[in-house]
Write a structure and sequence with these properties.
The chain is mostly helical. It folds into two domains: about 180 residues, no CATH class; about 100 residues, no CATH class. The protein is built from 13 helices and ten strands. The strands form five sheets. It has a two-stranded antiparallel ribbon with strand order 1-8. Strand 4 and strand 5 form a beta hairpin. The longest helix has 17 residues. It is elongated and about 75 Å long. The relative contact order is 0.13.
Length: about 300
């Protein structure tokens, strides 16, 4: 069972004790089926999924994001959470094996395996951002007693390992996610409302639902979105994911990542000014995100 306090203690220990590995640092590791521990690391493990992980996995499986979340994930909840997280659900009937582990061969979705599986035995840590400062992220070696691969003779540079495992693409696609969840504004002041947490969950992890939100509500009548981008987010999950990060920054922090249609802004401003005792207010995200994603029973927006 995932415990957020234990996980926070682990992160604090990593940030404090290191050692911090750079791109040119070296380590020994090789994983193959002749090792007695082969597939052991695919049992009873907390695998946090990123938005891009889910895009790749659900696309590889040929299912929707909603189906993927229902079948393969757990969504833990805690009052201390700054943002929603998703973990891969282990199979209780199979000694808490990963749902995609096929004994004795290994991972059945290897080409689309998650970021954390690709980096292993390396982990990545990023100190929290503070105003005016930004400590760089670093890698560290995960030493587990059962892992025989760490005793193999194959030597890697950190950068070489990441490139060999296809991590570079995952990190490029995950940069906006990391910047969002590490932003100190997400954890300062009052907690996010349940509605804001639901919005974050939808945009980050349930892209097919977010696509319905964009196309089956009044969303595109309120924002200026170039036609080529509209068509891109209609057809491409990665482009929709990037658009989602723009929407979240606008909705959470009023960043100018999206442009409100002039006529919509004028109507909202007039309505605000007409309220007794209200000051003239500009367009705010709360004025623009009052609709929920349309379901099949409500597709008119």
């Amino acid at each position: 069972m995932w415990e957020d306090k234990a996980f926070e203690r682990f992160k604090e220990q990593v940030l404090r004790d290191g050692p911090h590995l750079g791109a040119d640092d070296r380590f020994h590791f090789q994983c193959h089926r002749n090792l007695s521990c082969f597939n052991h690391c695919c049992h009873d493990v907390n695998i946090f999924l990123t938005p891009y992980d889910i895009v790749r996995m659900k696309r590889g499986l040929g299912i929707t994001s909603g189906e993927f979340l229902d079948r393969y994930c757990i969504i833990p909840f805690s009052k201390t959470m700054r943002y929603p997280v998703v973990l891969l659900r282990m199979r209780e009937e199979a000694q808490l094996a990963c749902p995609f582990l096929e004994e004795p061969d290994g991972c059945s979705i290897y080409e689309n395996r998650p970021w954390s599986c690709r980096t292993y035995p390396l982990g990545r840590a990023a100190p929290p951002k503070k105003a005016g400062t930004e400590a760089p992220a670093f890698y560290f070696l995960i030493r587990e007693d059962f892992c025989c691969g760490l005793g193999e003779s194959r030597e890697w540079r950190v950068a070489e390992w990441l490139d060999d495992q296809g991590v570079t693409e995952y990190e490029a696609q995950g940069r906006s996610f990391q910047e969002l969840v590490q932003d100190e504004r997400l954890g300062t002041g009052k907690s996010l409302t349940p509605e804001q947490m639901d919005m974050l969950f939808m945009v980050l992890y349930d892209l097919d639902k977010f696509r319905r939100f964009v196309f089956e509500t009044r969303f595109l009548r309120k924002f200026e979105v170039a036609e080529d981008r509209v068509e891109a987010i209609r057809a491409d999950d990665v482009e929709l994911m990037k658009f989602g990060f723009d929407w979240l920054r606008f909705a959470l922090w009023q960043e100018p990542t999206l442009e409100v249609r002039a006529e919509v802004a004028a109507v909202i401003k007039a309505a605000m000014e007409a309220r007794p005792g209200a000051q003239a207010a500009g367009t705010t995200p709360s004025n623009l995100s009052d609709q929920k994603p349309a379901g099949k029973q409500d597709e008119s927006g």
